[in-house]
Amino acid sequence: MKQALFIFSLLYYSSFAFCQHSYVTSDGQTVPGTIENYREWSKNPTTVLFRDNSGTTITLTPQNCKSFTAGSDKYVSYNGTRILNTDNAMKSQSVQSNVLIRDSIHAFLRQIYQFNNYTLYKLFDKKRTNFYFSDTGDIKELEFYETIENKDIVPFNGYKSFFNDEFSNKNIPGLQQKINILSYKENDLINFLADVLNDKQHSSEKLRNKYPTEILIGIGANQNVATLENNGPYIFHRTSVTPSLEFALRIYNQRNFGKIFFQPSINAFSLLSDFTKAPAKVKAMVVTVNLGAGYMFVRKPDFSFYVDAAGALPVLFNFETQQGNNGKYVESHGPDDRITIHPEAGIIIKRNLNISVSYLLPIRLPFNSDIQYAYKLTQASLALRYAFIQGKK
User: Fold this and answer.
1) For tag attachment on the chain, is the N or C end more exposed, with fewer CB atoms within 10 Å?
2) Coil, helix or strand for 123?
3) How far apart are the C-alpha atoms of 208 and 356, rounded to whole Å?
4) 214-389 belongs to which CATH class?
5) Confidence class of residue 254 from pLDDT cuts 50, 70 and 90?
6) What are the φ and ψ backbone dihedral angles of 298, each rounded to 5 degrees?
7) Which has the minimum average pLDDT: 117-131, 226-240, 302-316?
8) 250 has which bridge partners?
9) Domains of the chain by residue range
């Protein structure tokens, strides 16, 4: 048992050795080490647990350090003010006064863009999102808030006036139009700065994505388990195996190491259930539209493991039923309940090869005949997909 704990501890701590972090002290000294609670925060942290290379642990706060770096993330300490009025009057329950309200804060600001001597920072917490800008080392808030007057949203766009003053003497073509259409959002602000500063490396959001979108194309093998039941004591089962074609997008969250993702997908397969003992048949072309979200429990360059759960809508084409041996199919027009759940688990090898198993929870479909049948279908699938990675670096 002690040996197992030792090996686990060795692997745990050695994993940090390949991901060196650092912080800058109040007097300007850089200290290398490891941020033990680092997880690519979506919301700005208020405290950070740091352990230097000698094993000494310190809790970093905006008051006791100038900045810290973790991976590709950099945070700077800020001692100043922030606007508390809401940045979204339609959804927020925070301050909606038409009087500018500020709060004095000590906070870590996350650097989201940097080019030459220009830097853009973001503060995001439970109160609202505030953006800050620096061009000479002094950090200034980009002011924005919304109020509601006579049921209309009235924005205070102080950040637009700031950018107009900042760049008006630089002879930037179409500057005023660029400022007029600018929104107080992270990607819009970054795109604006990249544009007016002629920063070609960051000119598109695609190239900036740390976790780019994937286009998945694949084939699958489906085990279709169908059940036919009448009002009497008879229940008929039929299992068949059919191929399917699949197309999906996997869109990763750009924080939390890209472990959270959204996955819309479409798969198509041919359905044929032949209940010889009934006798009865069902046939259709089924296109299942899935909209789901998932989580990468393991995410590494060569191997990942994930689970996904999706809402599924099987859409039927040429759905026909046959009762008896007369060889005639009846096209179904009756109501049916087809929305269901489609859980999935899978592995990713070398970033591009995806292997997944999934299960389509039961769907009930109408069966038109002289006998009142209830038809139900479930499906288990094994799929092989290839991921085309957009903007892959």
Assistant:
1) N
2) strand
3) 29
4) mainly beta
5) confident
6) -125, 125
7) 226-240
8) 214
9) 15-71, 80-208, 214-389
